[in-house]
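Intended use. Records like the one below are meant for learning the mapping from a protein sequence to its folded structure. Do not use them to infer anything beyond what is encoded.
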Amino acid sequence: MSVKQWVQLLKNFIAKKFKDDLELSYDLKAEKLNSFFIIKSKKPNHFSEDSWRKLTEDAIKVLKTKIQYSAVETYGQEQQLTFYSSIYDSLENFPDSLSLEIHKKISKSFVEYKMNEYHFILDSINKCLSEKKPSFVIEGDWKKYTNHLGDLQHMYLLIEMYKSFSQPLEVYNKYEDIIHQRSASLFESKDSLYNIAYNIEYYKFISNILTYSKLKASNLPVKPEWMKENHYNTLKEIVERITSVDDKQKDVTEQIDVISDAIVFNRLPDEKPKHMNDYQWEKISNFVTQSKEIKDLKERIEQREEEVNELEEKVIKQQEDVNVVNARIKLTVFA
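Structure written out for the chain above:
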């Protein structure tokens, strides 16, 4: 068999081995991949430069494909770590440009694998956040992953806060030391979670005051330890304003009652009401006095009218009697 035939046979054999690399699904290690072996090997003497270059390019494609698919196949995390670490530890045997490319590939693939994990409870997320960054993962990729976990953690914490609506700050305080802090995220920062918990607690406190308490600043409960001083003072001011409006409304109602009694019944309280000033009391008193005088005058006029009517009736009656007498006298004279 000629050298050319042997080279072709070897190419076919290596192509078969590359296929085996893609199908390998257990005991996943870089040194068990034929493509990995080819990449870090030197060109055999019986291979031409062009043939070896094409073979190496194929090996690189196979390795990249294996790295990419390892992120979505059902390998456990330990096997993923072993696989990527073994590649990373051998990158010094690769050309610099290829070493950098493969490094980025394994870092990105591992982070994608981690980000595809499902988390159903908060403790699972917190456990992942406590993990150390593997040596082969680039800092930027790891930050992307931890920020992703941070967003999940914040969402789960919000759920816990709303489930524990009566004591959201207690939920926050329970997890405060392990809340992921980042400069930019869906929730902006750790402080935003505290503000949400605080606002729930604060507006719940306000709601209870406005709904169930007798509205007076003096009746406000003592400021809770968690409440900010300026917020407590604001609440007192709100209650004072509401109370002031209620008092004014009550005063107006009492004024209307006094005026109504003055107009309808011409009567006043024995003493000036506290909600009326001297000017108002003087005016309403004068009105009642004048009303009484007018009423008395009207009664006297009506009484005089009755007297005049009675007198008029008497005069008419007397006139009628005089007429009768005169008629009788005339009859007597002419008789």
